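Standup notes, structure subgroup. Blocker cleared on the S-adenosyl-L-homocysteine input:
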Amino acid sequence: MPEQDQWTAVDDYIVDHLIDDDPVQGQTLKANREAGLPEIDVSAAQGKMLQIMAKGAGARHILEIGTLGGYSTIWLARSLPANGKVVTLELEEEYARVAQANIENAGFGHSVEIIIGAAVQSLSDMDDRPEAQFDFVFIDADKQNYATYLEQSIRLSRPGTMLVFDNVVREGEILNPDSKDPKVPGTRALYDALRNHPGVDATAVQTVGSKKWDGFLLAVVR
Ligand code: SAH
Ligand code: DHB
Ligand code: MG
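Run returned:
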C-alpha cells in the first residue's frame, strides 16, 4: 500500500527531527520482540505525544489501562514530576513480567506500579488507594470494555482529568456495525456512551503513521 509507505516515511522524518536517540526504548521494543509480545505498542511519535500531554496537564498521578511491555508506560513515566506515579493495569502475567523488567531498565521502577488482572476488576478495587484521583488516564486495553473503562476512569478522576483512548478509528472500521473485527463493537459502544455524556467533553482525532490509520479519542472530565 503506497500510502502506508509514505505514512511510515513521514513518521521517520518526525522522529528524526523531534525525538532524541532513544536506546532505552529501543531496548524495550527488543525485549518485547524477544519475548514474543504482539507489536501493538504506540509509535514513538505517539508515545512522546502522551508524554507531552501528561506533562502539559501537570499530571502527578497517571493511570494506564493496558501495559503490554511497558513501552507507552515508560513514555508516560517520563512526564512525571518527582514523587509522581503511574499505575498501569495488565491482564497477562507474562506481559507484566516483561514490562516490569523494561520499566526498571528505564529507571522507573520506583514510580510505576503494575497491577496484574482483569482491569475492570482492578479498577473497581482501586477507590481506596491514595493516588486514586488520577490526573491523566490512557486507555489502551481490550476494546470490548472501553465503555466500562470510561465510567470507571471518570469515577477515579477529578474535574479537569484528561482521558485518552487509543485505537478509536481502526482503519475506518468503526463505521461498520457488522465489522468482523471483534474490537470494533466495543469502540462503537464508547462513541455511543459519549453522545451527550453529562460527565465529559470529548472529541476524536484520526491519525496515520507507522501504526496505520487509526485515532485517539480525547475527553476531559467536567
Ligand atoms: N499501552 C501499550 C499497548 C497495550 S496493548 C503500549 O502502547 O505500549 C493492550 C494490552 O491490554 C495487552 O497487553 C493486553 O494483554 C491487555 N489487556 C487485554 N485485556 C485486558 C484486560 N481485561 N485487563 C487488563 N489488560 C488487558
Ligand atoms: C491492537 C491493540 C492496540 O492497542 C493497538 O494499538 C493496535 C492493535 C489489537 O489488539 O489488535
Ligand atoms: Mg493501542
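Discussed briefly. The chain has one domain: 3-221.
Next: hand off to the docking folks.
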